[in-house]
Amino acid sequence: MDLITTGSQTVGPFFHLGCSDPFSVPVIAGLLVEGEHIKLICTSHDAEGTFLPDAMIEIWQANAKGKYNHPEDMQDKEVDPDFCGFGRLASDKSGVCGFETIKPGRVPSWTDVRQAPHFAISVFARGVLKRLTTRAYFAGDPANAEDPVLALVPADRRETLMAHPDPQQPDTWRFDIYLSGERETVFFDV
Amino acid sequence: MTPNTPSSTKPPQPAVNPASAKLPGIIRPYRHPDPNTQPPSLYPPYRSTVLRAPTKPLILFPNTLSEVTGPVFGHDNIAENDNDLTRQHAGEPIGQRISVSGRVIDDNGRPVPNTLIEIWQTNAGGRYVHQSDQHPCPLDPNFTGCGRALTDAAGNYRFVTIKPGAYPWRNHPNAWRPAHIHFSLFGTAFTQRLVTQMYFPDDSLFPFDPIYNSIPDERARKRLVSQFELALTEPEWSLGFRWDIVLRGQEGTPFEE
């Protein structure tokens, strides 16, 4: 059969029917999971800064030790049986997807230096013909300075990849996604 | 939906060089698709892309563990009748009963086994069970339009449903979407994640649909169209359509059958 890659199409405005509602995953890590428990609040915006009320955000992350729950992660580290590392939510009217999770550990890179703690993020929405992928890092984490992925991002755009702690609730990290416009988030070609 | 841990549903290990596979630093990167097979982010005929398309170039970096891993789902994530959308209510839905089946493979020709497929679609009249769809077409009390299935060891999947209808939308004057079924696939890695739409053969609306036409390459566009197959058609019961899906594969590992 023909092996050309199947083309992407938008999730459209009705994806809730197949992908969220009963199939949402707001809790990536329950209280039994080892690690620093946090909330990750992602807010999505369009080019004019308007909230996206019809976005779907997916999160993929390592556990607190920096191990992915997946057969291709052959690091000699333990997986946590209560932790997969996947989350998924449709945004609310204010463009918000709020996840309960843990801060991921550092995972290897293609260099000798491990990557800084980060979430791999997929963004889907009406008007988004193909998935957009980005990452959220933890602002202020000293490991960011040596992260090889961040090093490939122009210095003046790295800030778009930073989640920031809420001044009132330090365990709540806020990550803003701008699909376009002055504050356009860095998206990756993975 | 709680994805399974590898201890309960471990997909078969891909065939790799056993020596290199034991080295935790070895990553087998995923091939990038031919850009002409994929839509651009900005496609002005589809108006909603205008304020939602990044304008700056995407940043490329070598695949790491974060990209070559992804959530693993299993039979715990699937309920009985999830793949038969005609049996999810007390009665049968109105419409043309069909089956949609095919194979999920990667671009090396290797099957993608045990991967979750999620579908959603309109009823026979073209209406979604969704609060944002209020167009004047009746709902069908016996049809929701949501299905899930796992591929088998050879990458095969099968759904039974009714043929969805075309429906109007407000992209441009007198705009109608061709009948389609939304497909969401996880593959086995973050890189392989794909959400797309499957269409039906010979739809008169294709020339007018900016979403279908957002894919530059004609051959790639036609690959979104399922094929009618008499062999999949059940006598006096349902029409059979075949639709195969090709995900990105890992570099340097062509598959020989």
Oligomer: heterodimer
**Number of helical stretches of at least 4 residues of chain B:** 3
Radius of gyration of chain A: 17 Å
DSSP helical segment count of chain A: 2
Q: Which structural class fits the helix and strand makeup of chain A?
A: mainly beta
CATH architecture of chain A: Sandwich
| Strand percentage of chain B | 15-25%
The tally of beta strands of chain A, per DSSP, is: 9
In the predicted model, the low-confidence regions of chain B spanning at least 5 consecutive residues are: 4-23
Q: Could you name the CATH class of chain A?
A: Mainly Beta
CATH superfamily of chain B: Aromatic compound dioxygenase
Would you mind describing this structure in some detail?
The complex is a heterodimer of chains A (190) and B (257). By secondary structure, chain A is mainly beta. Chain A has one domain (16-178): Protocatechuate 3,4-Dioxygenase, subunit A. Chain A has two helices and nine strands; from the N terminus they run H-E-E-E-E-E-E-H-E-E-E. In chain A, strands 3-2-5-6-7-8-1-4 form an eight-stranded mixed sheet, with no helix packed on it. The two termini of chain A are 26 Å apart. Chain B has 257 residues and is mainly beta. Chain B has a single domain, classed as Sandwich (Protocatechuate 3,4-Dioxygenase, subunit A). Helix content of chain B is 5%, strand content 22%. Chain B is built from three helices and twelve strands; from the N terminus they run H-E-H-E-E-E-E-E-E-E-E-H-E-E-E. In chain B, strand 6 (167-169) and strand 7 (175-177) form a beta hairpin. Chain B starts with 17 loop residues before the first helix and ends in a 10-residue tail after the last strand. The relative contact order of chain B is 0.22. Residues 4-23 of chain B have low confidence and may be disordered. At the A-B interface, helix 1, strand 5, strand 6 and strand 9 of A face strand 1, helix 2, strand 3, strand 9 and helix 3 of B. Strand 9 (188-189) of chain A pairs parallel with strand 1 of chain B, so a sheet runs across the interface.
